Amino acid sequence: xxxxxxxxxxxxxxxxxxxxxxxxxxxxxxxxxxxxxxxxxxxxxxxxxxxxxxxxxxxxxxxxxxxxxxxxxxxxxxxxxxxxxxxxxxxxxxxxxxxxxxxxxxxxxxxxxxxxxxxxxxxxxxxxxxxxxxxxxxxxxxxxxxxxxxxxxxxxxxxxxxxxxxxxxxxxxxxxxxxxxxxxxxxxxxxxxxxxxxxxxxxxxxxxxxxxxxxxxxxxxxxxxxxxxxxxxxxxxxxxxxxxxxxxxxxxxxxxxxxxxxxxxxxxxxxxxxxxxxxxxxxxxxxxxxxxxxxxxxxxxxxxxxxxxxxxxxxxxxxxxxxxxxxxxxxxxxxxxxxxxxxxxxxxxxxxxxxxxxxxxxxxxxxxxxxxxxxxxxxxxxxxxxxxxxxxxxxxxxxxxxxxxxxxxxxxxxxxxxxxxxxxxxxxxxxxxxxxxxxxxxxxxxxxxxxxxxxxxxxxxxxxxxxxxxxxxxxxxxxxxxxxxxxxxxxxxxxxxxxxxxxxxxxxxxxxxxxxxxxxxxxxxxxxxxxxxxxxxxxxxxxxxxxxxxxxxxxxxxxxxxxxxxxxxxxxxxxxxxxxxxxxxxxxxxxxxxxxxxxxxxxxxxxxxxxxxxxxxxxxxxxxxxx
Amino acid sequence: xxxxxxxxxxxxxxxxxxxxxxxxxxxxxxxxxxxxxxxxxxxxxxxxxxxxxxxxxxxxxxxxxxxxxxxxxxxxxxxxxxxxxxxxxxxxxxxxxxxxxxxxxxxxxxxxxxxxxxxxxxxxxxxxxxxxxxxxxxxxxxxxxxxxxxxxxxxxxxxxxxxxxxxxxxxxxxxxxxxxxxxxxxxxxxxxxxxxxxxxxxxxxxxxxxxxxxxxxxxxxxxxxxxxxxxxxxxxxxxxxxxxxxxxxxxxxxxxxxxxxxxxxxxxxxxxxxxxxxxxxxxxxxxxxxxxxxxxxxxxxxxxxxxxxxxxxxxxxxxxxxxxxxxxxxxxxxxxxxxxxxxxxxxxxxxxxxxxxxxxxxxxxxxxxxxxxxxxxxxxxxxxxxxxxxxxxxxxxxxxxxxxxxxxxxxxxxxxxxxxxx
Lengths: 627, 422
What we know:
The structure holds two protein chains of two kinds.
Chain A: H1 7-17, H2 28-31, H3 37-45, H4 54-69, H5 83-89, H6 105-120, H7 131-143, H8 149-157, H9 163-173, H10 178-194, H11 208-220, H12 225-234, E1 237-238, H13 263-274, H14 293-300, E2 306-312, E3 319-326, E4 341-344, E5 350-353, H15 374-384, H16 386-401, H17 421-433, H18 438-447, H19 449-452, E6 480-481, H20 484-496, H21 504-516, E7 519-521, E8 529-531, H22 537-545, H23 547-552, H24 560-566, H25 572-584, H26 590-602, H27 606-618, H28 621-624, E9 625-626
Antiparallel strand pairs in A: 1-3, 2-3, 4-5, 6-9, 7-8
Helix pairs in contact in A: 1-3, 3-4, 4-26, 6-17, 7-8, 7-9, 9-18, 10-11, 12-15, 16-17, 16-18, 24-25, 25-26, 25-27, 26-27
Chain B: H1 13-20, H2 26-42, E1 48-53, H3 60-63, E2 78-80, E3 86-88, H4 92-97, E4 101-107, H5 114-123, H6 136-144, E5 156-159, E6 176-178, H7 193-212, H8 217-233, H9 248-254, H10 258-271, E7 276-280, H11 290-315, E8 322-327, E9 331-332, E10 344-345, E11 349-355, E12 363-364, E13 366-367, E14 374-375, H12 381-391, E15 399-401, E16 407-409
Parallel strand pairs in B: 1-7, 1-8, 4-12, 5-6, 5-7
Antiparallel strand pairs in B: 2-3, 4-11, 8-11, 9-10, 13-14, 15-16
Helix pairs in contact in B: 1-7, 1-8, 9-10, 10-11
């Protein structure tokens, strides 16, 4: 099953002949699996490369050791063409204006709030991030993938003082990026609405493709957020594309209304759209906030007219699709004019509930759809609720800055104070005033000062680390793992180049199958799941040996590696440089450049050498992290 | 680092190099190894733990603490066991090994939501937005690392488990997740060893450059996981995962279903000295129609898997070193609801544990006649965790240090369930 490498042989030989033959090595067996110093020396002495002379060998060792110890700024100054970028990112310039010369008024307001809290906590922000690396971050956060080499070079070579703002607008508004933008936000919202596994099981009522079709269309048209929420909450129709009456939006609720009196719909809608976790109050009064059990069931009552009906292929019992409908609800005491439901207190006492929104607004309790459509009433109340604005603004902030103003982001209440309550309120109001234009909101966030900063801490802000349990103050960009989808899309980009519309669904299905191997479920009725991926051994194995990595390191096809290798105009140094840029959005440091150049020179097969460098780049922390 | 590393336990070559920020640190590292091996010979700890996680919240009033005749009692009858306790009639095989297992009938907790309950039972702490606490498996793997220096496969294996991850201990203590078939994807490299070696050398250069830029935990943790992966990739110990090597009658004995195969794989892993293995049997969230579901689906599987594991570990002479812990996030309401189901109930419920030198065949604590509250003293998640740590030979005075300097007591300072130790 396992290919046995002769690591140990290699190493032992090295120990016997290499420069450190006398080293005591008490755990040779274990040592054979590690990546230690010996890897470097083994490389140069074990015959893995042609080594011209002892002198060359020594020089290589020196270069490698030096590169390993390199702690310099990585932004290259070797190349004159890049000098502009370095200057733009330099801390000598006011970072407020790093590549952002024109910005909406909201941006300055965000900066004010954030700076005020820096002052309050006596923190100073990190330096602005260099342009290339900033662009990488923006592409990941906005489009869900890293930039291509061409995109990166176009941005870096721009002399526009307002180039960051220009790039943001390009990614948001150019037709060229509509597909990428819509795909990314469709992925994000599919996971929120139906989970990573929703619609993938055999008996699922959800049609994942239908859900994605709806979202993709909504994001491609930049549908206002309130409209989207309203549509998701009120949707009726069929779940499957191509079937009469198709409405992809129904897939959000189809599997949440039939079972257990729509408790899934109740907890999902309140948490996702209002940032209120009322699921605890299904059975008892909330332990930490003011929610009482009646609130839960009054909210739940809004879903009692709704049913998901299975539709069968005629003459068979194969479910072809599902139809979500609203029908008259007679109530549990069979009085449709005042259709009630009952719930039990923990002491066994039974109470009655009618639809009442969380702010206390009661609606007509009739169960007749012709009198009142309960879901439509709910959608109206949700869209009017200030919680809607705060919940989405907090979610978006968290997406772009790594942490929201509350943790978790979807649990508002007196028990969970926001880190920047005024900014949260301000953004919520502005977003409402901007008619829920999501691209507008994104622009404010990514042009703000905090988003321009590097992820490197300074002594003046290293205390600001939410991992230490402190509330985030956004004095730097917080490093995070790429999501599984971001990594997948980025690997796809470097393997196949930018995709087009032609095989959208098959690509999505492929991605979904790939993700399936990392998903795990918790065994509850609530369908909880999580993805076990970032920073795990299976992830490393997948990037080391998996199909996705093999494809990326092939030199045929339209991938970056093949392009770079086959580009006759590039010399060896430039090829190394291009690979660094394509993976990490930076040039190699001088030391890295020298070390890898010497490795290539020493290699008997320069193509293999570049393949190996490319493999190493894709497997590095610097690639896999969003920073 | 988040936590204080026990001296001499570091064997993460790759990371040590990176953190040393100098490739020349190699020499001193080799010395560390001889120290570490010397230390490991001083004391030995071969304790292991299998956690059987019952996702959804099992109805312990129908399994382990029955109330026949009470309105809350349900239709099942109790049967006698080889221990000094009675359990549900639908667990006949388990009844035969109850002399080795004990029931803690006075668990009393406050978290009756799945997420919160799981977090609390898995970590010993209630959820707190400012810190992520480590799960049982991560704590135990971390604490026993110095005694498992020869272990090349991950020390915390989760077979379809549902734990809360490594929390502040960091990703290198994360569970290694596998299916019950034990198959590990992408193990085989598609290049030869010499070339892999070259690739790794290049990778190390790039990896360490980023770490040297002070990029924090995420960057260093990635390097540690790389190291663990490499260690595992070429290890002979991987054969512990080859559950397909088991003879058919062994598979039949454990039950040829997901849970049975998980238990069998868990036995192979603890045999290979993996300190913590987690198996999962979900589907206990029986708000409706609970009794047929238990009788026909959950209990037969549980009975087969649990009894076979206890029996098999005993036969292999591993029982004194292996602890089995059976629990879910909470119990279920004594009251049977309108849908003939039971809802979430944390106030009084049971867990089952045994092995590792703990007393078997007894019931600890009791509930009242209709099972609605504990009679007398009760135990919490913290207490249970302290008990397991004690049985695993882990000092309860162990304190983790979070980076903010806040001391975090192991098992949240819980008190050992004394009844389980003679």
